[in-house]
Automatic annotation (TrEMBL):
<dbReference type="InterPro" id="IPR052536">
    <property type="entry name" value="ABC-4_Integral_Memb_Prot"/>
</dbReference>
<keyword id="KW-0472">Membrane</keyword>
<feature type="transmembrane region" description="Helical">
    <location>
        <begin position="293"/>
        <end position="313"/>
    </location>
</feature>
<protein>
    <submittedName>
        <fullName>Uncharacterized protein</fullName>
    </submittedName>
</protein>
<feature type="transmembrane region" description="Helical">
    <location>
        <begin position="202"/>
        <end position="224"/>
    </location>
</feature>
<feature type="transmembrane region" description="Helical">
    <location>
        <begin position="261"/>
        <end position="281"/>
    </location>
</feature>
<feature type="transmembrane region" description="Helical">
    <location>
        <begin position="12"/>
        <end position="33"/>
    </location>
</feature>
<keyword id="KW-0812">Transmembrane</keyword>
<keyword id="KW-1133">Transmembrane helix</keyword>
Amino acid sequence: MYQYKLNSKLIISIYLLNFIVIFVLGGVILSNLSDEIESNYQERYPYEFVVYGKGTNFLKESYPFFQGKTEEGKSIAIFSLSSYEDMVKKKETLSNEEVIYISQNNSEDFKPLEGKKEIKIYFNSEEADYKVKDSRWEIIFGENVSSKLENILVVSDYEFKINAIDKWSLWYGDRNNIKIKKGVYVWKRTEAIEIEQKNDQYVLILVCIIGIFLILEGQGIILIKQVVNHSSITNKYKLFFSLGMSQKDRKKYFFHEIKNIAFYPTILGCVRGILVLGIIYFYQEGEFSKIFIYYLAVCVLILLIQYGSYYCIAMLMAKLYKIDSEPQ
């Protein structure tokens, strides 16, 4: 009875382990290879170049700004209302006491000042209190371009004029024939996307390696269990021999017994993971793309690896218990 309880716990553990690995691995594959990833890059990084420098107007169409800090110590780029209107091509109204707070970070990470009505900004060794007219997430020239440009404060033209002592200049666009002076910071969309894609590939490879190790670890537990139960399993097969069971039937029964613990729960866990992820994916996308076929191919590869490990365990244990020979 104890052995049955132990086997049932082992089967459930292997089933859940395979379900989690297949589900998580599928989520990583589908998110990294999605057809929408290019449009996502375009939304997050709308321009090929973002260039900014201090104390220089390297282009006629550059936008002046100056640096400040919030009470929490966050760097904030302060632009005039007229510059902001020209950048986003829409009209806003601000009094001299009002500001608009904008974050270019990931929209999921953006916390819009938690309903604050006022904000304190430090710049030029001074501090200023403003009324927050609006706080929002908005991509103007690119997400995560620089820590200096993640948070933006829009002030009235008058406030900008009297406070913009230590000016910086910003330009962004798709031209590649601009002349960049020394000391000017240049961000390139192509390079940023390449780095991000490379990091995503590393994450995918790492998840695959961890998943395979977890799955093989489950198979290793089965192997240890078979070794620990050596005496009881040997006695069982001695009994089979004494009852007249043939060598072929003993071997067939032995392989089937290990398969019930090591391989069938694996198939059930993988199929369940594929079905659950497939339902979610179809609900979001409305169809199965070639990326999902690629994911299925990876699942088949994992199943083949597991079948190979199961077969190796069965062959190793068959030699250990001498299933093919007459028991001593």
